[in-house]
Every structure is written in C-alpha cells, then in structure tokens.
Design goal:
five-stranded parallel β-sheet
C-alpha cells in the first residue's frame, strides 16, 4: 500500500480487456487505474483526481463511434481542468482526434500504439502537470512572500533574494547589477518594503530615460525663476523621497558633473535646488542599479571611482533568465495563466514545440521579453494550444534538450566518451581506464553514440 501511495496515478479508459492488460504492463511504474465506460471513468476521476488520463474515444454504448468518448472527455475536464488527457485513436479517426484536441485534450496517439513513444508522451504530460502545479503554488504563496513578483527555482536568484532579506533592515547603500529586464526595480522595491521605511515613499528615476539637460532638475529640484519656465518652486526626486527610499536606475548613464553632485549628496546628505542657496538635509535610503560594467567605466574615466565606492557598499548580482535553469518554462506558465485570465480566454496549453522553443531561446530581454512574448501568444493563439509560431520563436529538432531521464543519461555518456577519446587520442584501452569501465563497455558506448 505504501508503494502505491508514492506512485503517480494514471487513469486508463479502455473497454478492451486485452488492451487494458497491455497498458497496465506498459505503465507498471505508475499506479494504473482502469475504467471501461463513462460512469466508471468519472467515478475514478472524482475519487483519485489523476493527473494524466489515456482514453479510447470508442466507448460503450457507442464503441464504433466517438460521441461517448468525446462526452466523457468534456466531463473529465469539467471536473479536473488541469488533468492531461491523451486520446488513443485508430488511423481512420484522425478528425475525431483533432476534435478532441479542440475540446481540450492534451494530445492524441494512434493505435496500435508504440509502447516507448506513448510512454514518453505520458511522462511529458506528468512533467507539464507538475510544472503547472508548482506555478499555482507560487501564485498562491506570492502574497505571503516578502519579495513580491519573483518567481524562480534557480539557486543563483534565490541567493540574491536571501541577500535582499538580510540587508533590507539596514540603511546601507545597495547596487543592483544585472541585464535589462532581469527585475532590478522589483528587487529595489523589495528592499524598501522589507525595511523600516516601508510605510514611506519609494521614489524611482531612470537616468537613461531623461535628457541630460533635465536630469539635474529632476534629481535636485529648482527654485522659482531659476531658469526660463521655472514658474514655481519644484521639489526634486531625492527630496520627495525624504524618509523613504530613492531608487536611481541606470546610474551608469550619469554625466560627470551630475556624478559630482550625487557624490556630495551621498557624503553630506544635503542637496541644493537649482537657483537656490539653502542646503536642505534629506534622509533617504539609496538603492542604485545598472546593466553597465561600472569597473570598466572607471578604468576609462567615465565613472568616478569615489562615487563607485559610495554607491557599492553592497553589490547584488541578478542573473539573466538564460542562466536560470528551468525558470523560462516556469515563468511562461505563470504569464500564460495571468494573461488568459486578463484576456478572458479559456485555459491554454503550450505545444511540445513551444516548450522546446522557450527552453532553447536565450531571452536577451529577460523577464520583460518573456512577458511580452507570452502576452502576444495568448492573444494570437487560435486553438487550445500555444505553438512556437504563436510565440514567434524557432527551435531546431536537433537542439531540443531531452526531458526523459534515460535520454539525458545517454547524451551525457556520449559527451563523456567523446572527451575521453579525444584526451587519449582515440586509444580505447586508455579511454576505458580513464572512464573507469571495461573495453567492451567502451565499444558498446561507441556503437550507441555512432562513433567509429
């Protein structure tokens, strides 16, 4: 009984006793539940809520048609919308299989089925269900998370989040380093919300988005009559943030004169408005961010060294999405669910090609690019699935990373074999010694990897 509880539940809906036995044998790594008609199938679904279902469309009392099977499919998805239903169909029932996909089935597979291929489809279905469940758990706990808006399972980003939590209570000046779109402002807001200034203002300014001629007045404010058009006294962003947090985004774009003024403020914590003579004390926590490499800018004389050390009391590196293993698909599911709800669309699924494209794409625009990409796909998708074409991404079949554990192992074994043979100049005996296996094993591996 204990063993069954640890196994994933797979429901097989099939009225042919011979096929029932074959499917039980084929899926012995799962806890296989069996039903032969609509009533027994729905009873199993209500009791066990299986994550994956395989079903024949030809069910009694319409074994030669598809009406009963399609009706069963609709009722299953009404009870458990996230369950992945794989339809098994004969060669002549292609139109009915497509109709099942339109109604929300995850995939279809032709009979007589290839056990290994069907096994991969079922395994992938369980994998996708697990991803969606993890995504829902993240959404559920998001409001309880002190770092709102960060979704990740990558150790590098989790480490950055823990650092944010540790340093938030202090008033230390923080530099957030990362590519555009990685979530630097989200991190800055988290620093503010977790600090003792969380009930005060969070004021942000992007140095790259404001013309240099206007940036000084935006930062420090100005007095009435300071220049043409200055019709009244105006407070700058730094002064507006008094008591709270001031976030200076893209600080690497500051001109040298403004760097000097910012340095004076950081040293003395006072500002002077343009056209004014009075020094004004300001109590703010300063957080900065940039995608530029400040040390290189220092070496070329484009960024002041003394300002660098004032701003970089603590540096937090935010990794790009391409370096966050597994996060691309996780975020894709999150944004898909978000925009489906926003656009009033029924739940969509990603096709196999779409998921492969998401995993392989480098995402140079990071999370911001991902969000825009998924939003567009949700709007443009015509069927129940989002395709790679809807995403505007391409994937080569040769580059798709395997999810199946056996395929992953074989791929890594081939890599290790190639490296070992290269290191010993093709000597099989030396390669076997280097890898710690026998010569026959090396020859077997060479054969499987297509090496001569």
């Amino acid at each position: 009984m204990q063993a069954n509880q640890s196994k994933k539940k797979l429901l097989v809906i099939e009225d042919d006793l011979g096929l029932q036995k074959q499917l039980r044998w084929n899926f012995d790594t799962y806890e296989v539940l069996v039903a032969s008609d609509r009533e027994s199938a729905l009873a199993q679904v209500r009791r066990f809520e299986p994550h994956v279902v395989t079903m024949d469309l030809g069910l009694p009392p319409d074994p030669d048609g598809s009406t009963e099977g399609l009706a069963t499919l609709q009722q299953i998805l009404a009870l458990v919308p996230d369950t992945k239903v794989i339809v098994l169909t004969g060669n002549q029932n292609h139109a009915n299989a497509l109709k099942a996909i339109e109604l929300g089935a995850y995939d279809f597979h032709q009979k007589p089925f290839d056990p290994e291929m069907l096994g991969l489809v079922v395994e992938r279905a369980f994998y996708l269900h697990a991803l969606q469940e993890e995504n829902r758990n993240l959404l559920h706990t998001q409001s309880d998370s002190p770092i709102d808006g960060i979704f990740t399972r990558a150790p590098s980003l989790i480490k950055a989040c823990r650092s944010i939590e540790k340093i938030a209570p202090s008033d230390v000046t923080v530099m957030l380093l990362g590519d555009s779109g990685t979530g630097k402002e989200v991190m800055a807001r988290a620093l503010h919300q977790l600090s003792n200034r969380g009930d005060k203002r969070f004021v942000a300014i992007n140095c790259a988005a404001i013309p240099e001629a206007l940036l000084e007045s935006e930062l420090f404010g100005y007095e009435k009559g300071a220049f043409t058009g200055a019709n009244k006294q105006t407070l700058g962003k730094i002064e507006l943030a008094n008591g709270g947090t001031f976030f200076l985004d893209e600080v690497g774009d500051l001109s040298m004169p403004l760097q000097a003024k910012l340095l004076r403020f950081l040293q003395e914590r006072v500002i002077e408005r343009i056209g004014g003579r009075e020094e004004i004390s300001v109590d703010v926590r300063v957080v900065c961010a940039t995608h530029q490499k400040l040390k290189q800018l220092m070496e070329t004389g484009e960024f002041r060294e003394d300002l660098y050390y004032r701003l970089c009391e603590i540096i937090i590196n935010i990794p790009p999405l391409r370096d966050r293993e597994g996060d691309a698909v996780l975020l894709a599911h999150y944004f898909k669910n978000k925009f489906c709800a926003k656009e009033g669309r029924a739940s969509l699924n990603f096709s196999e090609e779409a998921l492969a494209a998401i995993e392989m794409h480098q995402w140079p625009g990071n999370v911001r690019e991902m969000e825009n990409c998924i939003k567009r796909a949700v709007i443009m998708a015509e069927g129940p699935q989002i395709s790679a074409e809807d995403l505007g991404l391409q994937v080569s079949d040769l580059d798709v990373e395997p999810v199946n554990l056996r395929q992953v192992r074989e791929k890594e074994e081939c890599k290790a074999l190639v490296k070992a043979l290269a290191r010993v100049d093709g000597n099989v005996a030396k390669a076997a010694k280097l890898l710690g296996v026998s010569r026959p094993t090396i020859y077997d591996l060479m054969s499987r990897c297509g090496l001569k």
